[in-house]
Amino acid sequence: MTVEDTTKTARIISISNQKGGVGKTTTAINLGASLAAAEKSVLVVDLDPQANASSGLGVSDRDATSNSYHVLIGAISADEAVHTTSLDFLDVLPAHRDLAGAEVELVSEENRATRLKDALEPLRERYDFIIIDCPPSLGMLTLNALVAADAVIVPLQCEYYALEGLSRLLETIGMLRADLNNTLEVDGIVLTMYDARNNLSQQVEREVRENFDGRVFQTVIPRNVRLSESPSFGKPAILYDLRSKGSQQYLAFAREYLESRCS
Fold first, then answer.
1. Suppose 76 and one of 80, 85, 91, 141 were both cysteines; which one would form an S-S bond, judging by CB atoms 3.0 to 4.6 Å apart?
2. Best CA proximity match to 229, nearest among 245, 215, 207
């Protein structure tokens, strides 16, 4: 009888789009929580100086005395900065406003692009998924996230100018494959802030699916009041209001994602 190898090797997913307000943090929090609800062990890494993913998972600026800034500058290990959350199977490595200084501090460092990759490596055997919430830019922090990642999920809002900047992001990913991370994949594009009553949302969905055939998840994330409210209570949507449309769609997205990884 053979013994099944249960050793974990986390898939590291960067939630990236240089445009702000497209649902990166909402996706990082709620995809992470939904995967955790499926009893997958998940770490959300907050790499945005605004620290919204941290507060959205119940870790305040005051509590985040050990955070991703300290990890990037090499002051502590990533393990020392991990916090538990109110959801089983879900941890967070929080951010702090000091993280904005890392953009400047890392510029002169030789291994500036691989700081996060090196820091997360010891944690890969602990988790099934490590999800990185990126800032709305293509600076040093996002570069670290993309170098550390196995894959990218791109949230794309169903609004005017939705495709603006997407080509640039995909070009950047292509360059990174050539120079710094030749195994980086694009797991897909997830449409966010969808309003079925709005013709523009429907038009954007058609255009994205036509232009990026096979790279767009079927699950669409709607505009939803509960999704917007839940971060102010320090909870992912499934703990704030499980029956809300937003919660249900993120659970559906997690199921689709897991199925796509297993197929």
1. 80
2. 245
pTM above 0.70, yes or no: yes
Contact 94, 81 (CB under 8 A): yes
Whole-number Cα distances in Å, 185 to 32, 142, 177: 19, 15, 9
CA 246, CA 228: separation in Å to the nearest integer? 9
CATH number belonging to domain 11-262:
3.40.50.300
**Residue ranges of domains in the chain:** 11-262
How many angstroms separate the CA atoms of 145 and 14, rounded? Answer: 6
Assigned token pair, 228: 């917007």
pLDDT in tens, the chain (263 residues): 444 445 679 999 999 998 888 999 999 999 999 999 999 999 999 999 999 999 999 998 888 899 999 999 999 999 999 999 999 999 999 999 989 888 888 888 888 999 999 999 999 999 999 999 999 888 899 999 999 999 999 999 988 777 777 888 888 899 888 889 999 999 999 999 998 888 888 988 998 999 888 899 999 999 999 999 999 999 999 999 999 999 999 999 999 999 987 66
